Amino acid sequence: MMTTLPGPDGQERCRWCAATPAYTHYHDHEWGYPVADDRRLFEKLCLEGFQSGLSWLTILNKRENFRAAFQGFDIDRVAAFGDADVQRLLQDAGIVRHRGKIEAAIHNARCAQELIAREGSIAAYVWRHEAPDDAGDGATVRATSRASVAMSKDLKKRGWKFVGPTTVYAFMQAMGLVNDHAQGCVHRAKAAQARADFTPPV
After folding, report:
1. 26 assigned to active site
2. Which residues, including other chains, have CB under 8 Å from residue 146's CB and lie 6 or more apart?
3. How deeply is 177 buried, as exposed, middle or buried, from its count of CB atoms within 10 A (0-12, 13-18, 19+)?
4. What is the pLDDT of residues 42-73, one digit of tens each?
5. From CA 201, how far away is CA 37, in angstroms rounded?
């Protein structure tokens, strides 16, 4: 059961975000709000891949370091990374130095270029996987959904790595494709309104 706790301002928020001020800020300003920017979507897919097996707080605390190391997650720049860049990143203590995840991020940038060429944008592709009847109810804790399983399967078919159903579901939660703010969280209604005001790209 998803529950809430009062935040610094006394308003109820998802219980998980009370752990640290960094989580509270992320929860209030980003998590669950719709995103249509390809760079941000690509960044989040990469960072969720790096988060696999770790806590999101670890990645969130290193996010600015990741952005510097991966040149702002500019898709074309990351796609052009070579062996020297892999070695550079493996020496960067500011990020998660996991060769498989680093190489996957570079590989996925190339896959993103192909996806954009075929679909028009990452945003257009991603938002086609939104499933209103599969939306979070704000009460049930879950790690995957029918939509995340479908997107994961399709991304893997397109060659992407580190995009399992759980990783994709976390991405969908964060980027506003599903509203998983808890019932009673002050941001559940705000996220719902943001989604109602949002026009999915085509």
Report:
1. yes
2. 131, 134
3. buried
4. 999 999 999 999 999 999 999 999 999 999 99
5. 10
Determine the residue type at 128.
R
d(CA 35, CA 110): 21
DSSP type of residue 141: -
Question: Residue range 76-101: average pLDDT?
Answer: 98
Whether pTM > 0.70 for this model: the answer is yes
In the chain, where are the structural domains located? 33-197
| 33 noted as active-site residue | no
To the question of whether residue 14 is assigned a binding role by annotation, the answer is yes
What is the third-level CATH fold of 33-197?
Endonuclease III; domain 1 (1.10.340)
31, 33, 48, 169: the catalytic one is 48
Q: Which DSSP state fits 190?
A: H
What is the spatial distance between Cα 110 and Cα 54, in angstroms, rounded to a whole number?
A: 25
Whose CA is closest to 177, among 43, 37, 32, 40?
Answer: 32
